[in-house]
Design goal:
Helices cover 25% and strands 37% of the residues. The protein is an alpha+beta fold. Among the domains are: 51-120, Immunoglobulin-like (Sandwich); 124-196, Immunoglobulin-like. The termini are far apart. Residues 46-117, 119-191 form the BIG2 domain.
């Protein structure tokens, strides 16, 4: 009986030693260290000031273009023209040339005004009076015109005009050529001359001059 008790004590002691060794190994092993990274400070965003897409521009009568106020809330921008007889502008910044001249278009944002200088060049016809011979051609054009131009002759029997502004003399006389662009009209007076008649008139003038010269010489001879 005593021998069995001793054996039990020995087993218990061995098991206890084993558990102690396991616990010792667990606590003696290096513990993993968790490293926490600190995020770098975020730089404050750079706020760009509002700026017009253009500070000056040239548009023609009837032509449209658009201005932008960059770095601004578009719905909070108020657009205006200092002279709508020259250039108009809508609430979205679209501008339209109306008449020749120079005007400032402005945008108001957060109580500040931004301006753009707009120039509208003058539209003019290349000639306001032209003389051509019967059967000959001459061309007219509108300078600084935008879009389609229509041409018309007041008397097609005297001279005709094509869709591109080319005029053809038909018979002697006068006619008015009208060019219409953006509902504005421009005119040129065409004088058609007969080349043969012009030559005859020149010959007649030479004959008259010659006769005068002969008469002058005859008078000098008589006086001598």
């Amino acid at each position: 009986m005593k021998k069995k008790t001793t054996t039990n004590h020995t087993c218990f002691r061995n098991r206890l030693i084993s558990w102690l060794l396991v616990i010792t190994l667990l606590f003696s092993a290096p513990m993993p260290v968790q490293v926490f990274s600190v995020p770098a400070p975020v730089a404050a965003a750079t706020i760009k000031p509002p700026k017009l897409s253009k500070t000056s521009a040239v548009i023609k009568i009837g032509q449209k273009s658009r201005l932008y106020l960059n770095n601004a809330v578009s719905t909070q921008v108020t657009w205006g023209s200092e002279n709508e007889q020259i250039v108009t502008v809508n609430k979205s910044g679209y501008i339209t040339g109306v008449n020749n001249g120079t005007v400032k278009i402005y945008a108001i944002y957060k109580n500040r005004k931004y301006t753009c200088r707009i120039t509208v060049p003058k539209v003019s016809i290349s000639n306001t009076s032209v003389s051509i011979y019967v059967g000959k051609k001459v061309s007219l054009k509108l300078d600084n015109a935008y879009g389609t131009t229509s041409w018309k002759s007041s008397d097609k029997s005297v001279a005709t005009v094509s869709s591109s502004g080319q005029i053809t003399g038909k018979k002697t006389g006068k006619t008015i050529i009208t060019a219409t662009n953006q509902r504005i009209t421009y005119t040129c007076t065409i004088n058609v001359v007969d080349l043969n008649k012009k030559t005859d008139d020149a010959i007649d003038a030479l004959i008259v001059t010659a006769r005068k010269e002969i008469g002058y010489r005859e008078k000098r001879t008589e006086s001598v």
